[in-house]
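Dear colleagues,

I hope this message finds you well. In preparation for our joint manuscript, I am sending the D-3-phosphoglycerate dehydrogenase (Sporolactobacillus nakayamae) sequence together with its predicted structure, so that both groups work from identical material. I would be grateful if you could confirm receipt.
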Amino acid sequence: MGKWKVVATTVTFGKINKEPLERLVANDCEVMTNPFGRPFTKEEFLHFASDADALIVGNDKVTADIIKHCPKLKVIAKHGVGVDGIDAQAAYAQGIAVTYAPGTNAEEVADLAFGFMIMIARGLYQANADTKADHWIKPTGISFYQKTLGIVGLGTIGTATAKRAKGFGMNLLGYDLQENPAAAALGVHYTSLEKVLAESDYISLHLPLNDGTRNLINAEKIALMKDGAVLVNTARSQLVDYEALTAGLKEGKIRGYATDVYDYEPPNHLPLFDLPNVLLTPHLGGTTIESNLRMGNTAVANVLAVLQGSAPPNPVLLR
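The corresponding structure tokens are as follows:
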């Protein structure tokens, strides 16, 4: 039995790459990995993690009530970037460190965002299905060259998306509360959200979820968009008002919508999912063999630092 108990609730930890798990074991940790293939429920947290010294979490909801029932807990490490599912305020109030793994999957998520745009623009998902069914139908798509990409949120992932768009000869508009010099250096022109939506042929969402961004893309914002705009969401599902989005897709206001993110995982089936101009993937954007290793090693470095009495390299800062 190890000196410290670490519960890794994220589905992929220790499965795609063994190295992060082996590092924990080599440092006197007893490790439990996720046996369910999905995020933990509250009851499972309370059953398996109530005596844990550390948690490595994915898209689980780590609430104040769960934290309260983990008296030995010293650190909650996000196996990824977005920490909106962790009640960091409650954790810090209990003296528990909260960490994340910045930049470890940014390139991969940007790859998916741009891949989504290509698939919708050229109708590749339908063309694939038609050709396999022996229907020789050539869809007429839309181009990227000299078109405008609007990037809503220009952190690491949004900036990586801009880098890809530049290679396609696109014009770049961006919206964020703070300007990122790296994005500006790529030729991103910062402007208002309204102008980004009104002037962009493609729109890619990369904002965190908070009270200010929830349902940001609502009926009013969709009405501002160009007719036939393409909307891609690899950030958080609740940035978009699904009712307004569904109406926009049915009316043809939005050419297509692609998402990798959902309110729940696996998601409840929505009418939106049945539309032919909607492309869905199972939150795989940040998951490749290489990015999984980076995320795992960063999460482990954060956990071991705290357990061994040091400050973690990547703390989550409260606003």
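For the figure legend, we might mention the following. The chain has a mean pLDDT of 97. The chain has two domains: 4-104+288-308, 143-280.

With kind regards,
E.M.
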